[in-house]
């Protein structure tokens, strides 16, 4: 009887060992995962971790505890481990391992999340599982009764500056450490940002922006269509998981590893993605083609499979997602017309920082795929944005001349869009983005040579004829005639200044003469400002008229009583300025204009 019991026991032990190596993920999912507290862990303990090295099969690697870094960051502990087994001997820490669960005595201790660059050994920092659960599960439970967030995150700097510095971001934390050996510290393991359908030069230009946020951009293939969705789409601890940022003709996704699953909630990464707090990003399973080993940074070459839910939390301890919930993504279409005519249809993540950045990346790639990099060309761009709650789309458009690929034109259009979705007045939910780009070979520019008027003295109410002499490049000069109506209430004896100018000079005059009108104090003013930016092909003829009154917070007050006008003119409050009336006529031309000319006239 005793022999029979021992044989049965041996059978179950062998069965457990066999299931560990054949299908470790499934064997441990049979029972509720137990966790181990940091206080129970001591140096020298050995265990194992789970991650995907190839395909979608969860593999096992060996782990040895080196120590505990207590309070290494504010209110946070770190378990220091050495990893071995599989490709880790030659690759070191691999980008994409973030979130790999680590076990001791079959109890979960946390997720692989931190490391050092250029390390010969695969030494990593593990975020304790209890810290992940307390930081993510509690917040997730509170958010279950709230509608999905839309990337509700305020930038630390102004939207304009954040976007203007898109290509001037610093290097990654790991790269920075390699430049300063006395600044070695634990940093989050880089997460591979797998991008397909994007020009390599554009990706290189975007690299500083991505790496600043701990993303390692790599060119990959399109999404894999799973043959068996039931198995391929399933996430378990150790599985590869992807946060999808773009999906369609262009694709971009960040790949990491699942740490823990409780009910319909998935915890992963072990460190923040962007640390945006509430977020709304598609969560997908992923397939790993291979491990690309490198002295600087080894990386998983992977592609997303199918969307299985949404990521709703992005916090310091990791990310949290929910099975079954579908996120809001913004439909986007880019049309490029030039030597070829192409259309790109895709969906893009709804995020205040990432949305304009990815639209810019997609637009640059679309232009490069159809047009030459160097040489003269004229470009017309129209960006149409449909915003929830508004019947008509917001339209931003302009024309440009470029000698080489400076990208000034696309930046000039995308930047106002970034200002709108990052505005301080109200939340904006974008429903659709359409971008149309027309490129023409050759130079269609002209400059303003001179102006003349038909009379030097005018009466109030007179008509004034202004002839502007334009000189196209490689063309003959010609006159553009503009008729201006002098207002009846123009002050007799005053001197008027007549100016013909381009958009750049005109915008400077706007800010200098009536700055309050161009500093929005509400959302409608912001939209009006962005939609009515001066167009580069418009000839502007302006007559400045001094008026009695003031501007206050962007609004003009020409009919104030004299006593109130005197008080407000000497007010110590901001937002108050002198009031000028101005007659402005804009004449569209076939050229991108430059230059300015002025002439004074007097009122009888």
Explained architecture:
The chain is α+β, with helices and mostly antiparallel strands and 604 residues long. It has five domains: 1-28; 29-130, Trypsin-like serine proteases (Thrombin, subunit H, Beta Barrel), CATH 2.40.10.10; 137-328, no CATH class; 330-441, no CATH class; 445-603, no CATH class. Helices cover 22% and strands 44% of the residues. It has 13 helices and 31 strands. Strands 1-2-3-7-6-5 form a six-stranded antiparallel barrel. Strands 11-12-13-16-15-14 form a six-stranded antiparallel β-barrel. Helix 9 runs antiparallel to helix 10. The longest helix has 21 residues, at 2-22. The N and C termini lie far apart (125 Å).
**Strand composition percent:** 35-45%
Count of helical regions: 13
- What's the helical proportion of residues? 10-25%
Strand order of the largest sheet: 1-2-3-7-6-5
Task: Tell me the major beta sheet.
Answer: 6 strands, antiparallel, barrel
Q: Quick check: average pLDDT?
A: 79
The radius of gyration is 31 Å
Number of strands: 31
Overall 3D geometry? elongated
Overall tally of domains = 5
pLDDT < 50 stretches? 1-31, 144-182, 228-232
Distance between the termini: 125 Å
Structural category:
alpha+beta
Present the secondary structure layout:
Elements (H helix, E strand, L loop, with lengths): L1 H21 L1 H6 L16 E7 L5 E16 L2 E9 L3 H4 L2 E2 L5 E4 L2 E9 L7 E6 H15 L15 H6 L8 H7 L7 E2 L2 E6 L3 H13 L2 E5 L9 H4 L7 E9 L2 E12 L2 E4 L8 E16 L5 E18 L2 E6 L5 E9 L3 E9 L4 H17 L3 E14 L6 E11 L3 H14 L8 E12 L3 E9 L3 E2 L4 E10 L5 E8 L9 E7 L1 H11 L9 H9 L6 E15 L2 E3 L4 H8 L6 E13 L3 E3 L1 E8 L1
Parallel strand pairs: 4-15, 9-10, 17-21, 22-30, 23-31
Antiparallel strand pairs: 1-2, 1-5, 2-3, 3-7, 5-6, 6-7, 6-8, 9-12, 11-12, 11-14, 11-18, 12-13, 13-16, 14-15, 15-16, 17-18, 19-20, 19-21, 22-24, 24-25, 26-27, 26-31, 27-28, 27-29
């Amino acid at each position: 009887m005793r022999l029979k019991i021992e044989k049965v026991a041996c059978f179950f032990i062998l069965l457990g060992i066999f299931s560990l190596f054949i299908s470790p993920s499934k064997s441990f999912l049979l029972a509720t995962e137990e966790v181990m507290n940091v206080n129970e862990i001591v140096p020298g303990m050995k265990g194992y971790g789970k991650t995907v090295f190839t395909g979608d099969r969860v593999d096992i690697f060996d782990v040895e505890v080196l120590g505990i870094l207590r309070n290494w960051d504010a209110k946070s502990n770190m378990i220091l481990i050495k990893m071995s087994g599989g490709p880790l001997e030659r690759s070191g820490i691999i980008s994409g391992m973030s979130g790999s669960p680590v076990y001791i005595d079959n109890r979960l201790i946390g997720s692989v999340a931190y490391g050092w660059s250029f390390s010969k050994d695969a030494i990593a920092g593990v975020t304790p599982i209890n810290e992940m659960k307390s930081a993510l599960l509690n917040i997730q439970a509170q958010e279950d009764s709230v509608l999905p967030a839309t990337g509700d995150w305020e930038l630390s700097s102004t939207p304009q500056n954040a976007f203007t510095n898109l290509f001037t971001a610093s290097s990654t934390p790991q790269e920075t450490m390699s430049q300063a050996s006395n600044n070695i510290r634990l940093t989050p393991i880089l997460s591979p940002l797998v991008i397909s359908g994007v020009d390599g030069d554009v990706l290189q230009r975007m690299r500083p922006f991505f790496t600043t946020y701990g993303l390692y951009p790599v060119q990959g293939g399109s999404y894999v269509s799973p043959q068996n969705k039931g198995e391929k789409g399933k996430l378990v601890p150790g599985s590869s998981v992807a946060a999808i940022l773009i999906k369609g003709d262009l694709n971009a996704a960040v790949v990491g590893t699942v740490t823990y699953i409780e009910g319909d909630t998935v915890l992963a990464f072990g460190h923040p993605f962007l640390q945006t707090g509430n977020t709304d990003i598609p969560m997908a399973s992923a397939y790993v083609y291979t491990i690309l080993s490198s002295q600087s940074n080894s990386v998983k070459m992977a592609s997303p499979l199918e969307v299985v839910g949404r990521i709703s939390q992005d916090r310091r301890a990791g990310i949290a997602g929910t099975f079954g919930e579908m996120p809001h993504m913004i439909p986007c279409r880019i049309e490029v017309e030039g030597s070829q005519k192409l259309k790109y249809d895709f969906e893009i993540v709804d995020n205040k920082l990432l949305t304009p950045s990815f639209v810019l990346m997609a637009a640059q790639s679309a232009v490069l795929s159809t047009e030459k990099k160097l040489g003269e060309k004229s470009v017309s761009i129209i960006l149409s944005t449909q915003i929830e709650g508004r019947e008509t789309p917001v339209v931003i458009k302009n024309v440009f001349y470029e000698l080489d690929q400076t990208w000034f034109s696309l930046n000039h259009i995308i930047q106002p869009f970034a200002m709108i979705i990052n505005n301080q007045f109200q939340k904006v939910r974008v429903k659709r983005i359409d971008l149309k780009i027309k490129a023409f070979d050759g130079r269609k520019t002209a400059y303003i040579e001179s102006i003349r008027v038909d009379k030097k003295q005018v009466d109030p109410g007179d008509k004034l004829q202004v002839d502007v002499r334009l000189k196209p490049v490689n063309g003959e000069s010609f006159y553009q005639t503009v008729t201006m109506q002098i207002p009846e209430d123009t002050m007799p004896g005053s001197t008027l200044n007549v100016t013909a100018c381009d958009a750049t000079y005109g915008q400077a005059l706007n800010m200098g003469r009536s700055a309050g009108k161009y500093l929005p104090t509400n959302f409608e003013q912001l939209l009006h400002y962005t939609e009515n930016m001066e167009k580069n092909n418009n000839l502007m003829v302006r007559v400045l008229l001094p008026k009695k009154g003031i501007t206050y917070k962007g609004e003009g007050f020409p009919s104030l009583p004299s006593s109130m006008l005197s008080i407000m003119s000497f007010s110590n409050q901001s937002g108050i300025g002198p009031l000028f009336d101005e007659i402005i006529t804009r004449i569209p031309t076939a050229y991108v204009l430059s230059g300015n000319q002025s002439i004074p006239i007097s009122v009888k």
